[in-house]
Amino acid sequence: MRIEEHPILGTYQKGKTVTFTLDGKEMQGCEGEPIAAALKAAGVMVHRHTLKNDAPRGIFCAIGRCTACVMIVDGQPNVRTCVTPLRAGMRVQTQYGVSAKE
């Protein structure tokens, strides 16, 4: 199931299929769609774990206001994947906690 319309980003043209990695595993998504949408389409619902209780978190607000969907993208922690467009070759990693460091 692919998200077709986003409350903030609106409707977008489905881009070409691109390859990216999640925790070193190769995955595919549509170029330009939010990273979170590509992950959801691939069945990935957990984007990070809380530092205190190791509780899983995923898409919550889907408009970039909360930190539920933050992940490490190309080495940068705290990237809001619900509003960050997917590009070919991105390295996406599950994040533990929300901090300024990996």
Integer average pLDDT: 88
Run of helices and strands:
EEEEHEEEEEE
What global shape is seen?
globular
Q: Mind summarizing the main beta sheet?
A: 5 strands, mixed
- Extract low-pLDDT stretches: none
Number of strands: 10
Beta fraction of the residues? 25-35%
Tally of contiguous helical segments: 1
The radius of gyration computed from the alpha-carbon positions, rounded to a whole number of angstroms, is: 13 Å
Helix content: under 10%
The order of strands across the largest sheet is 4-3-9-7-8
Label the structural class: mainly beta
Report on the architecture of this protein:
This protein has 102 residues and is mainly beta. The protein has one helix at 35-41; strands spanning 5-6, 10-11, 17-22, 25-30, 48-49, 56-57, 70-73, 76-80, 91-93, 95-96. It has a 5-stranded mixed sheet, covered by helices on one side. The protein has a 3-stranded mixed sheet with strand order 6-5-10, with no helix packed on it. It is globular and about 40 Å long.
Entry summary:
This protein has 102 residues and is mainly beta. It is 7% helix and 33% strand.
List the helices and strands and how they pair.
Blueprint: E1 5-6, E2 10-11, E3 17-22, E4 25-30, H1 35-41, E5 48-49, E6 56-57, E7 70-73, E8 76-80, E9 91-93, E10 95-96
Parallel strand pairs: 3-9, 5-10
Antiparallel strand pairs: 1-2, 3-4, 5-6, 7-8, 7-9
